[in-house]
Amino acid sequence: MPTSSHPIPNGRGRYLVLLMLSLCLQWGLTGRVHAQRVALLIGNASYQTAPLRNPPNDVREMESALTAIGFKVQKVLNANQNQMKRAVRDFGNLAQGAEVAFLYYSGHGTQAGGENYLLPIGATIEKEADYEVEAVSANALMRQIAGARPRAAIVVLDACRDNPYASVTKSTSKGLSRMDAPTSTMIAFATSPNNTASDDGFYARALAARLKAPGMELIDVFRDTTADVRRLSGGKQEPRISEMSITERIYLAGQPAAVRTEPPVQVASIRPEPVPAAAPPAPVQPPQPARPAVPSAGQTLKECAQCPELVVLPGGTFTMGSSAAEQALANAGGLDKKITDRESPQHSVSIKSFAAGKYAVTKGEFAAFAKATSYQTEAEKGDGCDGWTGSEWKKDKAFNWRNVGFKQAEGHPVVCVSWNDAQAYTRWISLSSGKPYRLLSEAEREYAARSGSQTAFWWGKSISTAQANYDGTATSYNGSAKGDWRKATVAVNSFKANPFGLYNVHGNVWEWVEDCFHDNYSGAPSDGSAWTTSCSGDYRVLRGGSWDIIPAYLRSAFRYWYTPDFRDYDSGFRLARTLLTP
């Protein structure tokens, strides 16, 4: 990452809104040969207004699941109105008489005038009447499917997010409105009608996992998906089946094994002997439910085989940001005043107890995720990662998390991963563990780094390369002695843990956090939650400094920012988990 100031262009922050529509089914009738199963997957992300992040990932999840259970899959990404309508028309022809038809849509959607609309790329919405002209009616899509007369169809609408055009259409409706189901069709929502769902990807990933589970009847797939999403969202999102007109039992990944039924036992008629009356039994008190264990501060958590090790941090209140005196020292140590001004104003923040990764996520942990999901990072799919080629610092297609331009062991922090990549890993860990994992908020990251201190670093006001991994040759901070430069990452358990039990909170790798970037702390939350509204451009925050940066960047208060798709050979991430305690 460069050490120069990072300009932020003016512009409205991105408000992530996601809509997903899917028809999903595999017939499992006894003694029958499966007829054709067809699927169309549409993912729209590259909107000019409020672009999205998750649709391509969700399409990949569903494609993998449907292919595994015998569907012939077609997909369309970033479709305009004509492309969407033609894709649905062609799919209607393909689905004629099919045993199972599956239509999946991920993108923006809204309700207007009592009807649900799917938003294509390039739509121009200036008033509510424009939806009928510029968008694709969900009811019209349903008519195409019904006209194809598949044996069964399921429509799942994950279009329950805030309307991206609410400000221009003056719409106050949230989410999607209820729809009527044609014959042999099921309609399910990712949350209850007229409510909104978060853009966390839990629904698509949970549904994809349940689709592949053998021996589950259709209704069980969606019931268990609902339970998964409710648990992973901490009760904030509750999928619903809105309508269902399917009358036959359907198994998505094959029927369960046959259960043997024993014939009834024939018993001779015997005249019963009279039984003496007994005293009524004493009342029995129902057992009291056990209270869940509350993790205590300092406790270590390892909640699944793939899960990174966590440490429970105590709750507390701290002063976030830096003082004028510290900023002056940072300016003398090589930072522009415009950058340090963004650490103001100092303000009090109260943090609830939460669990944070003892270490940054390692290369070995990320490798397990990539192997289990066949996930490709944005560097692998695109034009590589920023790094040192041997003669200059630039983006190179040869660089990605597997090859970063210097030697790394599995115990080193993963780098060359974007904010989007970090979110994908977090969703996988959440589903693997059944726990609400996430990135730290910016306030939590500073609180974790300080671990009770108010100095520039948790150990004090100065720094040395014996305490952290950074470039100690270029310049010093606050009179600290210059040191060496390792020119690479080190193992995540290097150096000494801070008083909270966390390693390398200063240096080694930058760590993505959940928040979007703001020019200063005016209006920042005081409860430690992620700040994701009224953003200063399309940027996400990184914290902690790295192995190739000067020491002033490693301070607890320092803030950096880049676009969500940025990847660099010194950028990684650390996980957090919300503690759901009584």
Describe the structure concisely for a colleague.
With about 575 residues, the protein is of the alpha+beta class.
How would you portray this structure in words?
The protein is α+β, with helices and mostly antiparallel strands and 582 residues long. It has two domains: 19-244, Rossmann fold; 300-578, paralog of FGE (formylglycine-generating enzyme). The chain has 13 helices and 23 strands. The chain has helices spanning 55-68, 81-94, 130-134, 138-148, 166-169, 202-211, 218-232, 324-332, 337-340, 363-373, 378-381, 419-433, 442-450, and strands at residues 19-22, 37-43, 72-77, 100-107, 109-112, 115-118, 136-137, 152-157, 185-189, 240-244, 300-301, 310-313, 316-320, 347-351, 354-357, 385-388, 393-396, 437-439, 510-516, 540-543, 560-562, 571-573, 575-578. The strands form six sheets. Strands 1, 2, 3, 4, 8, 9 and 10 form a seven-stranded mixed sheet that branches. It has a five-stranded antiparallel sheet with strand order 11-12-15-23-18. It has a four-stranded mixed sheet with strand order 21-20-19-22. A hairpin with a 4-residue loop joins strand 16 (385-388) and strand 17. Mean pLDDT is 83; it is low at 1-34, 259-276 and 284-291.
